[in-house]
Amino acid sequence: MGGWAIAVHGGAGVDPNLPLERQEEAKQLLKRCLNLGISALRSNLSAIDVVELVVRELETDPVFNSGRGSALTEKGTVEMEASIMDGPKRRCGAVSGLTTVKNPISLARLVMDKSPHSYLAFSGAEDFARQQGVEVVENEYFITNENVGMLKLAKEANAILFDYRLPNAGLESCSAGVERPLVMNGLPISVYAPETVGCVVVDNQGRCAAATSTGGLMNKMTGRIGDSPLIGAGTYACNLCGVSCTGEGEAIIRGTLAREVAAVMEYRGLGLQEAVDFVIKERLDEGHAGLIAVSNKGEVACGFNTTGMFRGCATEDGFMEVGIWE
């Protein structure tokens, strides 16, 4: 075993015009979450406990798009989704369509631990949350004034907005502007910069785990489900590795991106970073995404084909890094 390792992300696809204070705010949150995970690992918490702990912290802070601060649907409400996976026995839990659960990742953990199922959604997931006694809040808790303003912009533009953290005045100068509009399933979108959150961990016993949580897309159709709660797409963990993805959800789903990392390690014998690089290059077609990964050897890796990805990682030997750009 190579010791423990941890990686976190706050979304792939960052506009280069993002104000420096926003960049610093994001990096400070990533660093805080890394330190939280490091402290837990040093206290011998298991990988699955650590990924839940770290993603809960990310969901509680409105900087990124998960939990409080989630993107708004076309109706101005929040519908959240999350998934978690424990590598040793490939146990998993996932939830979608949550409107009142304060920490979606913890409900996903309960689906894994306390239900006979792997995935619950919408009213069924909400009912299960109340049966389990998890903390619930009004939908308004998740809604920020900033997101209300960005939903208004999205509706005026008749588009899905991905980077809803950009200042209103800077929207017209975004890197994915009108000259080369991006498309999702053939439909134009405005700005490519989703901010899903995720965490992957391998503990000092070589056990891997992964967790991912998001509010989805700004101005999305109600009922839309992305890659984040889909095991094998947005999240995957097994004996070899743990993976959490972020980016264009529909492309990640088509490429079963997270599972592909494990598959090429298992069937082609690739190392962790080689596997990540291969999947980003060969499995996204024309999609845009990024991912973080750890291996059972204590390795950590990331990859993305977007303009930046909010990310951080650390290993037991003292290495620690937080970054946005390549």
Automatic annotation (TrEMBL):
An example Gene Ontology biological process? proteolysis
Among the Pfam families in the record, one is Asparaginase_2
Which Gene Ontology molecular function entries are recorded, alphabetically?
A: asparaginase activity; beta-aspartyl-peptidase activity
Assembly description:
Heterotetramer of two alpha and two beta chains arranged as a dimer of alpha/beta heterodimers.
Q: What is its EC number?
A: 3.4.19.5
What does it catalyze? Answer: Cleavage of a beta-linked Asp residue from the N-terminus of a polypeptide
InterPro entries registered for this protein in UniProt: Ntn_hydrolases_N (IPR029055), Peptidase_T2 (IPR000246)
Top-level taxon of origin: Eukaryota
Task: Provide the binding site for substrate.
Answer: 224-227, 246-249
Keywords (alphabetical) are: Autocatalytic cleavage, Hydrolase, Protease
Positions marked as site (Cleavage): 195-196
Using the UniProt record, name the top-level EC class of this enzyme in a single word.
Answer: hydrolase
Q: What is this protein called?
A: beta-aspartyl-peptidase
Organism from which the protein derives: Rhamnella rubrinervis
- Active site: residue positions: 196 (nucleophile)
